Each structure stands twice: as structure tokens, then as C-alpha cells.
Amino acid sequence: MATHIPAGYKWWTGGKSPYNLSYGKLMMWIFLMSDTFTFAALLISYGTIRVSSNYWPDPNYVFNTFPFMGDANLPLAFVSLMTFILIMSSVTMVLAVHEGHKMNRRGVEKWLLWTILGGLMFLGCQAWEWTHLITHVHPVLIDGQIKEIGATISQNHFGAAVPGLMHEGHQVHLPGPVGFGNFFFGITGFHGFHVTTGVLLNVLMYFWVRNGRFDRLGHYEMVEKAGLYWHFVDLVWVFVFLCFYLI
Amino acid sequence: MSNEAAIHPGVISHGFQEHQEAHHHHESFITKYIFSQDHKMIAKQYLITGMVWAFIGGLMSVLFRIQLGYPEATLPWLEDIFGHWAKGGKISPEFYYALVTMHGTILIFFVLTAGLSGTFANFLIPFQVGARDMASPFMNMLSYWFFVLSSIIMLSSLFIQTGPAAGGWTVYPPLSALGDASIGSKTGMDLWLISMALFVVSQLLAGLNYVSTILNMRTKGMTMTRLPLTVWGLFFTAILGLLSFPVLLSGFILLLFDRHLGTSFYLSDIVIAGKILPNEGGSSILYQHLFWFLGHPEVYIIILPTMGIVSEIMSINSRKPIFGYTAMVASLFAIAVLSFLVWAHHMFVTGMNPFLGSVFVLLTLLIAVPSSIKVFNWLTTLWRGNIRFTVGMLFSIGFVSNFISGGLTGIWVGNSTIDIHVHDTYFNIAHFHIVMGVSAFMGMFAGVYHWFPKMYGRYMNNTMGYIHFWVTLVCAYVIFWPMHYEGLAGMPRRYYDYSTWESFKQFVELNRVISFAAFVSFMAQILFLFNFFYSIFKGRKVTTKNPWGATTLEWTTPIRPGHGNWPGEIPEVHRWPYDYGKDGVDFISQTEPVSKNESGGH
Ligand code: HEM
Ligand SMILES: [Cu+2]
């Protein structure tokens, strides 16, 4: 297998490699640890601001819509679907890596494509959710006047209901805590950015698999590294899901 | 596929081999000196970039020391150079704030983080663990160029109309979040944040390389317990950076959002220029937590590499093994862990719960334990040594002296009861300049003088080196020692003119003395720069492979090693790096097999 190593070169001569890992995988693991701290910092900041606010919107109320279902009240249904898609894409990634171990190029191609598709679907869902939140306006009482606003990074309509005040058949609310939009769009956006990077990485892997780069190298370790990243992004979503939708 | 198979071709494909095939026979000027992937060249690039920054940052301190030492003076030439920033020959208050802010940012991040780790991690790690280069030379090069990009942006902020950031090196909101708050919070602040974000990326790329090179690329026989302390110091430094810089990045991202997207992460209930801002619910204290979660580890990111350098140089020049190798490594480890648990000692006056404050006092004082273990070990290494007072050795001793002086005041400010009084006074300035600023520079100079022969195949001039050392040492104490008294008398930091305050008038002369010493010290650094560049071309040539009689692997390479470091095979390691004076032998190189009649131990 290692025929292209010139005679006399010893690349790793320190006995057994620590953790039996190549340096590339080690780097990926360390990077993920480091990125964990980025997300931890954001989520802990979110936690502190949220517990110090005296009002916070109920996720069952904020996230209760579903595409093409009109005003049907379906709390957390859509985000469950998103989460399911992302987790399935992790499963297909595992299969791609597995095929890589068997040096089966076709198999890797197939499962990578599914993973890319899963990632794109997740991003599509997120785009829909954001658009819905931003463009769907609700009546809000601001400075004694009723205004129709959507939920953006700087304002939202998820405050407490104003008892007895209706506007064109809709209950009027107070403005919600600014921090809600700040952190929701900030953190899900940052996570979405990670998913996007992951999809691009997978696309790159797909092309490298197709043109036989890894067959020439004799291993599919790069796909494994991309896989590590993908699972990490998935895992982070579980925490985001927990912090924004469940509690 | 077996892991073994993944390891070998993997290394080949990213490592030295691919590079060698591609470039070896036709290395152009560009690939050799500019976009180099050779760890030695990248180290020199970091060093010289760091020197440029150190010159700029030092010059800034000279300028604001003019203001502090001579608040009445008008110097027309200042106006000639700086225009409206120094109208009438007097540094304007806005300029003064910009100067202190950029001075701190530049010296802490660009010189003592990137310049210091960048130089010595790149230069020493592959040499001392016995590798041909970093794990990923390409990422290593990328890290340097991200640093350059970040530098260019920071530098450009000095030339824009509203000037650079001017809210202190910690850029606390709300001042830094609101463009209307001061001119230093306008475009300069954005450039500062963007530059620092790129800086974090550069640090992450570098750190990943350092850690994986140390763990995965060691030569045969180089177990972790045989690593020189320099490598251990750089190892913990890289880990600290990898785990704390991302938190800073998060903090900066939120700050950028507050500046431009109308969010209120750090803002609440603010009236500015008579206007009530709509922001509510945010917390500026949150920023302080995110900042100091990096900020405290950052001070150790600066000091740990120099601790390693000094340990190495002291052992070599005392011709004695380092005292307590295991204790040294253990205390580096303890410092690394504890440094994540003490950040709130920078925030005792933020109104935190006194009970929480006392927890942080306890954790903070705990850090003094491993720190003093290290100090005692350095002193015992010197004890009854056969000391050679090379310039590098003098700077190492200077390091220990300053580290003790500044560490002792650390115990003062570490107690919240005292710190509540001296927080944000010159006492704090004295503490951290001595323990971090001067110490780290001493360690860095020690390293430069010591490894210069390996870098350029020539020696630096000794006479200039001795002058550099003594002037720097004396001036450092003359500058920073009196600041303790000023701080205890309540003199706050970051004020523009103390002579107008009845209670601080007594310090007018003292401030003048401090400023004078600062100018002299700056001249001494110019002498160093001259010595450095002069010696690259004209220094005395190194004629033997191992001029200091040292045991570590870098001295087994040719005097001017090529890319790949060892012309033949990488040597195998048989012993720890501190066999000095063992069994009456002056020194035994790490590559020497242990002979049968050697006494025990390592
Ligand atoms: C004996 C160990 C040490 C203790 C207990 C200690 C404690 C402290 C405390 C409590 C403060 C906050 C003072 C205030 O803001 O009022 C402080 C400031 C500072 N310390 Fe230390 N320190 C120690 C060693 C070090 C070391 C080794 C370094 C750097 C290598 C360092 C660098 C700094 C810096 C840079 C600041 C000031 C940051 C700023 O406010 O701009 N300290 N130290
Ligand atoms: Cu600290």
C-alpha cells in the first residue's frame, strides 16, 4: 500500500502514535473542542440574559407553525422535523465513512450525496422558519400605538398579551424581550453558518471522491474528518434545540 | 483500513513530502522568503513582524509618556507630525486615549502573543521534538498570513480620520458599542474588532499545529517526559489559546452585532447626548465575563512560553540539570487549569456577590502556589551552578527577578479587599507591567540572544547585548516601581493630566522621572534592534554545531539547516534533555545512548 514512500524516510518513528490517530484527525478533534467553547460562550451568555429577564416568550407559542398548514397550532412540529432531518444526515454520513473504510468509492459517493441533501434540506427549513418569523406581522402596542411588526433580531411581538385589546380580530401583545431575537437569530444563524460550511465541505469531499483522489491516496481519511465536523454540527444543534425550543 | 495505514500516507500527503516534490528543486525567492512553509522561516517572519509592532507600540508609549511627564510642555514638532491630533504641540485627549489603547492591544496581542509564540513555537517545536516540520506546514503559513492581514487592518485604523479604537485594550461596552460615545468608538473600533477576529483565526490555526506536532510528530524515543521544558511551555500555551480565544471571538461577534444590527446583548438603559436609546435587557458585565475568560488565560499565554525558554537557558548556562523537572511540568499544568477559573478577579468592583468574590479570591491565590514552585526551582537551578553569564542568561535572571516582584503584588490585588481600593489605579499598572510586560520581554530577549546562532548562523554582539540588558533592567524598575506608590495613593489609570488634581500634584516630579526612564529604555531597545539586524549580516560566524554545549536536538542539525532540518535520518532520542554535569561529564546530548556504567536517574 505505501509504495510511494521513498526508502529511508521515517515519518512517524516515535513508536505507537498517541491515541493511534493521525495528526489530521487529532487536529480536527482539537478544533472541535475549541469550537465547542465558541458555542458554549454564546449559549451561556444566552442563559444569563434569559434568567435575568423578567419575561420570556413560550417556545410552544413562538414555534407553532408549519409550512402550508395555515394557522393550525402545531407546537414544535416543524423544528422536530428539522432535527430529524439533521440527525438522519448524520446517519448517512456514518454510512459514507463506513463505505470509505471498505474502499468502496460508489458507496461513499451515494451516502455523501444523501448527507449533502440532508444538510440542504435543513438549511431550507431554517430559511423558511426565519422568513416566517420575520415577515409574519402581529399587532403590538408600542408607545400607546398599535403597530404591526414581525420578529427580527432587534424587535419582536412575543410580549405578554394586553388584556381585552384586539386589533382586526387579533389579540394585541406587548413587545417581547429584545434579547429573544438577539440570541435566537444570532445563535441559530451562527449554527446555520456552520451547517453551510459543513455542506460545502461535503460537496468538496464528493468531488474529490469522484475524481478518485482518495483511491490514489489509498484511504478515505479526509471523508472521516469531514464526518467528524458534520457530527459536531449536529451535536451542537441538539443543544441549540434544547435551549431555544424545549426550555 | 488499519490505522497504521492511515497514519503513514496521511502524513506523506500533507507533510513535507508533497512540499518537497513540488518545490524542492526550484525554490524561488517568493516560496523561500515570502510564502515559505519552512517552520524556521515562518518563525523569523513572526519575529521580525513582532519587532515592527514592538517598535510601533513602544513609540506610542513614548508619546503618551511625554504627555504624562510634561503635561505643560508644548512641542511644535508633535503638531508637524500628527497634525490636529496634537494641536498646538500638545497631545489631544482623544489622541492620548487612542495611544494607550493601541499600545496595550499591540503589545499584548501582536507582540507578546503572536510575536512571541509565533517565533518560538515555530522555531523550537519541530527542532526539539525531532520533526522535519510542523504537522501541517501549509496551515502554518496560513496562520502567519492571517496575522499579517490582521496587522494590516489594525495598522490602517491608525490612519483613518476618526483614528483607531480608544476605549482601552479591553474595549468594554457600552463605550465601545456606541459610535456616538467617542470618536474612538467609530470606524476605528470596527477595524479593531475585524482585525482581532482575524487574529483569533490565526491563533487557532497556529495552535492546532503546535499541539498536534507535539503530540504526533515526536521522533523515536522522544517520550513526553523527555521533552524540553520549552516544548512543554509552548504546549500548554497552545491549549490555553485554543480554549480561550474562541470565547473572545464569541464576545466580539456579539459586540459587532450590537454596533451594527441594533441588538442589545451588552446594552441597556442608555442616554447618550440627551437621547434615550431603545436598547434594553442587555448586560455590559456579560462582555466583561467573556473578555476575561480569555483575558486571564491570555496573560499566561504570554508568560508560559517565556517560562519554558528561561528554564532551558538557565539549565544550559548553569551547567546543571533543571531542578525539579516533573514539578516544573506539573506546575505548568496546574497553572493552565487554574487560569480558566480565576477570570472574575478582574471584576471585583462590578458589584458581584461578595461570596462569589471570595471564591475567586481563593482560586486566584491558589495560582500563586504553582507560580512560586517554579520560582523556587529556577533559584535552586542557579544555586551552586557553574554559571556562564551570557546575555541570554542575564535576561533569564532578569525574568525571574521581575516575575518575583510582580508576582508578589499579584497576591495583593488577588485579595478583593485590597483590590477594591487599588483597582484601576497605577498599582495595577505596576503589577501587570512588571509580572507580564517586562518579564515576558526579558524571556523573549533571552530566547532571541540564545537561539540567534541557530536562526542566522551568527552571534549577536555581546557588548551591545550587555548594555541592552542593564539599561532595560534598571529602567524597568525605575519606571514601574514608583507606580506602586502612586497607585496606593489612589492615582487612577488612563487619566490624561494628573497635574490638575490637588491630591496627585505631589507626583509631578516622579512622573517626570518615570517618563525619562521610559525614553532611555526605548533607546536601549533601538540598540537591540540595531544589534539584531547588524548581526544578521555582520555578526561573528558560528563555527561549531553546538556553541552553547546544549543537549537538545536542534543543536544536532547543521549550522544552517535546510528545509527538513536533518540532512540524513532524524536522530533517535535516548534520554531526557537535562543531563548536564552528570558523572562529571559536562553535558550529554539527548541522542547519546545510555551507557552501562552511567549512574541511574534519567
Ligand atoms: C501570583 C499570581 C497573580 C495574581 C494573584 C494576580 C492577580 C491579579 C488581579 C487580582 C488583577 C486585577 C487587578 C485589578 O484590575 O484591580 C490582576 C491584573 C492583571 N494581571 Fe495579575 N496576578 C498574578 C500574576 C499575573 C501574571 C503571571 C500575569 C501575566 C503574565 C498577570 C497579568 C495581569 C494583567 C495583564 C492584569 C491587568 C489587566 C488590566 O486590567 O488591564 N498577573 N492580576
Ligand atoms: Cu487575571
Notes on the protein architecture:
The complex is a heterodimer of chains A (247) and B (602). Chain A has 247 residues and is mainly alpha-helical. Chain A has a single domain, classed as Cytochrome c oxidase, subunit III, four-helix bundle (Four Helix Bundle (Hemerythrin (Met), subunit A), Up-down Bundle), CATH 1.20.120.80. Helices cover 62% and strands 9% of the residues of chain A. In chain A, the strands form two sheets. A two-stranded antiparallel sheet of chain A has the order 1-2. Chain A has a two-stranded antiparallel ribbon with strand order 3-4. In chain A, helix 1 runs antiparallel to helix 5, helix 1 packs parallel to helix 7 and helix 5 packs antiparallel against helix 7. The longest helix of chain A is centred in the C-terminal third of the chain and has 33 residues. The N terminus of chain A is likely disordered. Chain B is mainly alpha-helical and 602 residues long. Chain B contains 17 helices and four strands. Chain B is globular. The structure holds protoporphyrin IX containing FE (HEM) and copper (II) ion. Copper (II) ion binds next to helix 10 of chain B.
Short description:
The complex is a heterodimer of chains A (247) and B (602). Chain A is mainly alpha-helical. Chain A contains seven helices and four strands, in the order H-H-H-H-E-E-E-E-H-H-H.
Distance between the termini of chain A: 52 Å
- In the CATH hierarchy, the third-tier topology of chain B is known as Cytochrome C Oxidase, Chain A
- Kindly provide the name of the CATH class of chain A: Mainly Alpha
Known CATH architecture of chain B: Up-down Bundle
The number of distinct helices of chain B, counting runs of at least 4 residues, comes to 17
Strand content of chain A: 5-15%
**Structural class of chain A, please?**
mainly alpha
Q: Percent of residues of chain B in beta strands?
A: under 5%
- Which stretches of chain A are poorly predicted, pLDDT < 50 over at least 5 residues? 1-16
Low-confidence stretches of chain B: 1-25
**Using only CA atoms, what is the Rg of chain B?**
25 Å
| Topology, number of strands of chain B | 4
Task: Write out the strand line-up for the largest beta sheet of chain B, numbering strands in chain order.
Answer: 1-2
